[in-house]
Write a structure and sequence with these properties.
By secondary structure, the chain is mainly alpha-helical. It is about 70% helix and about 0% strand.
């Protein structure tokens, strides 16, 4: 019996052109990205009784839990707002980041039938989950502002800093989501281990406590973590007590862009074999 010939089609484009070519293709498919993002939001609470009320109840329930835990291990001495409000301001960026990673990691696998049938830039799948998670960021931020006013505090002018801080945070969430979505194809245990990893990151990121609560001998090393800087900067901008310098934000932005470039290159390199592997 004669052997069947197999033809493997691969891109002939140079490796270094994958990132700019990918960006151009992504722009061309921007309408599909918008549609898939809206679809993520539409189906998120589609079959639940409370619907979008969960978007408010979830951070409030998490806030209650963290307030109890944080009242034991947190530092309140230098806070200029009530401690629950302090944590609520921290939950906005953290919830966005954690939701992005936890949903996007398995996004490519859950979209296998669509990926196998229709061609489109595959990064649209994890990116749509990241953009959908922005709803959590917006809702938690708005909830914090309402709580500020309710407790007699003014909304500080530093809230304008939330725009660049959020953009940097989106870059990190996208980079990690791209890496995890590719890794999840080859290592299915990532979906099981990711919640544990996020729990560990929660307690090693200044969500329950201010950055200055970290012992002085460890603080320099601790501040090398861009996510810690971004959470602290986001909270500081929201409550009007910024402790992160412009230089630290520039460092976080540059490191994030480098990480994103690496993650996007890895994703586009793995993209041609994605259909066969999932």
């Amino acid at each position: 019996m004669a052997e069947r010939s197999v033809t493997v089609i691969r891109s002939g484009a140079p490796a270094l052109s994958r990132v700019p070519d990918g960006f151009r293709e992504l722009v061309a498919y921007r309408e599909l990205l918008g549609y898939m993002t809206l679809n993520r939001l539409r189906v998120r609470y589609q079959n639940s009784w409370l619907g979008w009320a969960w978007a408010v109840l979830q951070p409030l329930a998490f806030l209650a839990f963290l307030t109890v835990i944080g009242s034991v291990i947190g530092s309140r001495s230098s806070l200029n707002v009530p401690y629950p409000l302090y944590i609520l301001a921290s939950l906005a960026p953290w919830t966005f980041f954690a939701t992005s990673l936890s949903t996007a990691a398995a996004g490519v696998l859950s979209s296998r039938s669509l990926i196998a049938k229709v061609y489109f830039p595959r990064e649209i799948v994890p990116l749509s989950y990241v953009l959908a998670a922005l709803a959590d960021l917006v809702i938690a931020t708005a909830l914090t502002m309402v709580a500020l006013v309710y407790t007699g505090h003014n909304i500080p002018i530093t809230v304008l800093e939330l725009i660049p801080i959020s953009l940097i945070l989106i870059v990190y969430a996208t980079a990690f989501s791209l890496i995890l979505s590719i890794a999840q194809i080859g290592f299915r245990d990532i979906a099981i281990g990711l919640p544990l990893l996020l729990q560990g990151m929660l307690f090693t990121t200044p969500v329950l406590y201010p950055l200055n609560a970290v012992p002085a001998q460890w603080r320099t090393t601790y501040e090398l973590n861009p996510l810690a800087l971004l959470v602290e900067a986001f909270r500081g901008a929201l409550i009007g007590r910024q402790t992160i310098s412009a230089g630290q934000l520039v460092y976080a932005a540059i490191a994030g862009l480098i990480l994103f470039g690496i993650a996007y290159f890895i994703f586009k390199t793995a993209e041609p074999n994605m259909v066969d592997e999932i």
